[in-house]
Structures are given as C-alpha cells and as structure tokens.
C-alpha cells in the first residue's frame, strides 16, 4: 500500500530550490540527531543541481554534520572521471567541494575508463555491491534505507536514468543497471532501479518549468510506471513532489496544498 504523494507548489523554480534546500537541511539534521548519521541520494539535472547550489548558500547549511553524511547517486552519465557532464562533477561544483564531507562517505557511481573500463553493466554491478555492503541489518534489504532520495523529472516522465518503456524501468530484481541508448544524452548511463528507489524512506521529486507540466500531470494521474517511470518513484513513508507553478499547471487546483503556491 503506497502512501499518497504530497504536492507542494512554489511560486517559481528559484523559490522551489531554496525551499527544498531548507527542507533537506532539516531532514538531514533530524536524521543525524536520531541516528547519528544521514543518507541522501542525489540526482543530476538543473533542478537537482539548483537545490545543491541553494543549499550551499543557505545560512543554515552548517547545522549539518557533513562528516556524518552518506551521499549516493540515483544515476550517472557513464563518462570519464572529471567530465563536466557527470552528475558528480556538477554536484561538486554546486556544493560538495565547499563542505567538509568525509570522502569515504561520498559514493560516486563509477566513471567510464575506471575500474570497469567501458563496461557500464559491470560498473552497475559494482555499485550495487557497494550499496549492499553499506546496508545495515536494520535496512532489511540490498541497499541502505536512504533518508531522502532526490529525483529530477524529465519531460517524458523519466526519473534517474529510467526511461519510459526502456529495460531499466522494467527491472524488478537488480538495484543498479547499466543503461544503453538513453533518449537523454549521453546514451550510456548507470542508474538505480525502481526497487532501489522505493527502498528510500522518502522520495522527493523536483520539477520546474512548463516543459514538465505534462509529465507531472501524467505521473500523478494514475499512469503506469513502465509508461511513466516517475509514477513508480515513491518512498516507504513519504513521496513528495516539489513543483513550481508552471510544472503544476496541469494539476487540478484542489490538489494544491494551501501554502507556497
Ligand atoms: O542524469 C540526469 O540527467 C538526471 O539524473 C535526470 O534524471 C534529470 O534529473 C532529469 O532529466 C531532469 O533534469 P532537469 O532537472 O535538468 O530537467
């Protein structure tokens, strides 16, 4: 039984990024207070990086104990280490290089030309093994119980690198897959699967701009996850859609919560 998604609509994408950053700071601080550490999965894309940049400039950012934060990625472009188009490169530029993280707790997905050469499927298996090694008995599964798993949403309703009707979105066993022929360049990627995404306590989906309105409406109107992967992205205890007005334009007005629209 999945919990109904919560929808919060913000005036514009900048306010969405600022509010999402504030929300994430609070979530991380609360998790660290409760368990001594926090675990967050980052996403690529403009909205994911916008959130990280907003977090970097937040006066409250150092309420987080950066040394007790585990960072994972929901997907990665399978490019050489340091390539400007890699999600980890962009995350470092937006935030990670500015805060005192424990490097051992930053789990970037493998790059092409690294330990797995040009084999994205082997890289995916390697990351799955890293996730499994980090899972604790209380996680009851092959991945850690992420406190928050962030996802951008593509105009075709893709999340991470799970694209409509592609093999990755159909995966029900593996936690990480290699992606070939991705419609969004670059074509070769590594991605968490829906079972791994759904292991998260909370899944937060970020979408801003009128080019996302159709995808948001489709994903929230009962579409199947194979045709609309975002529809299959939900957390164990919470699924939160963080939108701006433009991305929410296709939703029935009564779905909007009273605040922040
Ligand atoms: O590697 C990637 O490209 C991202 O992980 C991808 O899933 C992204 O989040 C969406 O395509 C939304 O991207 P925008 O926020 O830039 O629209």
TrEMBL record:
Belongs to the glucosamine/galactosamine-6-phosphate isomerase family. 6-phosphogluconolactonase subfamily. Keywords: Hydrolase. Hydrolysis of 6-phosphogluconolactone to 6-phosphogluconate. The lineage of its organism: Bacteria, Bacillati, Actinomycetota, Actinomycetes, Kitasatosporales. The keyword Iron does not apply. One of its GO terms (biological process) is pentose-phosphate shunt. Pathway: Carbohydrate degradation; pentose phosphate pathway; D-ribulose 5-phosphate from D-glucose 6-phosphate (oxidative stage): step 2/3. It catalyses: 6-phospho-D-glucono-1,5-lactone + H2O = 6-phospho-D-gluconate + H(+). Residues 12-241 form the Glucosamine/galactosamine-6-phosphate isomerase domain. It holds the Pfam family Glucosamine_iso. GO terms for molecular function: 6-phosphogluconolactonase activity. CDD domains: 6PGL (cd01400). Its EC number is 3.1.1.31. The keyword Hydrolase applies. NCBIfam families: pgl. This is 6-phosphogluconolactonase.
């Amino acid at each position: 039984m999945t919990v109904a998604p919560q929808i919060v609509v913000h005036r514009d994408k900048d306010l969405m990024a600022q509010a999402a950053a504030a929300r994430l700071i609070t979530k991380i601080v609360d998790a660290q207070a409760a368990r001594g550490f926090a675990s967050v999965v980052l996403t690529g894309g403009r909205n994911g990086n916008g959130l990280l940049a907003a977090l970097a400039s937040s006066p409250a950012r150092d309420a987080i104990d950066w040394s007790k934060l585990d960072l994972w990625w929901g997907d990665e472009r399978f490019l050489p280490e340091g390539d400007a188009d890699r999600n980890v490169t962009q995350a470092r530029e937006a935030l990670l290089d500015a805060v005192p993280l424990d490097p051992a707790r930053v789990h970037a997905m493998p790059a092409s030309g690294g330990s797995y050469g040009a084999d994205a499927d082997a890289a995916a298996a390697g990351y799955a093994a890293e996730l499994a090694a980090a899972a604790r008995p209380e996680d009851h599964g092959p991945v850690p119980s992420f406190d928050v798993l962030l996802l951008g949403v593509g105009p075709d309703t893709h999340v991470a690198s799970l694209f409509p009707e592609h093999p990755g979105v159909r995966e029900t066993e593996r936690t990480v897959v290699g992606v070939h022929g991705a419609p969004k360049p670059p074509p070769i990627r590594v991605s968490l699967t829906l079972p791994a995404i759904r292991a998260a306590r909370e899944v937060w989906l970020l979408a801003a701009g009128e080019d996302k309105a159709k995808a948001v409406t489709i994903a929230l109107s009962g579409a199947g996850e194979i045709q609309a992967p975002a529809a299959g992205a939900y957390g164990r205890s919470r699924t939160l859609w963080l939108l701006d007005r433009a991305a929410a334009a296709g939703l029935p007005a009564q779905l909007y919560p009273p605040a922040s629209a």
